[in-house]
Amino acid sequence: MPKDKTVFILFYTIHDVLRMEKILKEKGIMHELVPVPRNLSSDCGMCIKLIDDVERARPHLEGFEVERSFSFDGENYDPITL
After folding, report:
1. How far apart are CA 74 and CA 60, in angstroms?
2. For residue range 63-77, what is the model confidence (pLDDT) as tens digits?
3. What stretches of the chain show up as alpha helix (H) in DSSP?
4. Domain boundaries, the chain
């Protein structure tokens, strides 16, 4: 995956979002906690927006149930598997 794409990671629960945010902070991986973009889900919820290379975050996703993940190039959201 190109490094210039942003990655959105959606989880089933806000609890998992907050746990992942804490891990990413501790590891120094650039991210934001953001509302899920409307074109990805109509649910009111939060997700992780990775600003850094997704490869640095990938090992920390073990043990989490990721609902869906998308790369975003500024115009299009493309489903990806993490």
Report:
1. 25
2. 999 999 999 988 899
3. 14-27, 54-57
4. 6-69
